[in-house]
Amino acid sequence: MAKKYGIVIDTQRCIGCFSCSVSCKAHNNIPNDVWWHKVITVGGEDNDTPAGKYPNLSMSYTPFRCMHCENPVCVEACPTGATWKDEETGIVMQNSEICIGCKSCITACPYEGARTFLEKEPEFLVDFPVGDIDAPKHLVNTVGKCTMCYNRIEKGREPGCVEGCTASACFFGDLNDPESVVSKKIASREWFQLQPEAGTTPQVYYLK
Q1: In angstroms, rounded to a whole number, what is the distance separating the alpha carbons of residues 46 and 186?
Q2: pLDDT confidence tier of residue 159, bands split at 50, 70 and 90
Q3: What is the reported pTM?
Q4: Rounded to an integer, what distance in angstroms lies between the CA atom of residue 31 and that of residue 121?
Q5: For residues 52 and 45, what is the distance between their CA atoms, to the nearest angstrom?
Q6: Which of 161, 179, 171 is nearest to 203 (CA)?
Q7: Rounded distance between C-alpha atoms, residue 19 and residue 34, angstroms
């Protein structure tokens, strides 16, 4: 049976520290002002602000990236095959070397911000790559996105966001394996997915 890799996030454990975002950025050598992995505050209008009035306040965090959908509309929209679904893992991939920058995938994707367009030559905080040696290439006028750290998974490692989570709130594994940590997590708790009405069947689960 083919694998179906997914991510499970425990929203009760997530503290909004952005370690997952920073780890993703470092491992993938992502340019300045570009984030493939974000953390959204569920609360007030600004980051780290609660909703409501004291003492009735509420705030939580939603880590956000490509959802690696089972039915990815971005794949159908891409005219060059630069974005595709790997049938052996279920990961939605992106190849910047054959991307023509038409942004069709961005328009089609229901998860705003999951894909980024590199409008100028990439700039970095330091003058040398800091990520994994086989990190994805970043080319001007192309689309980039989370690849679930496919290059790391091939070597038996976890995605950077999972490895970098300081609160042990993020889990990775094969959703087709009932004994995997992700399968056990979603079987033991109530969960939700983002925008299920889009019909894309995302492979990122959020534990309530």
Answers
A1: 30
A2: very high
A3: 0.93
A4: 9
A5: 11
A6: 171
A7: 15
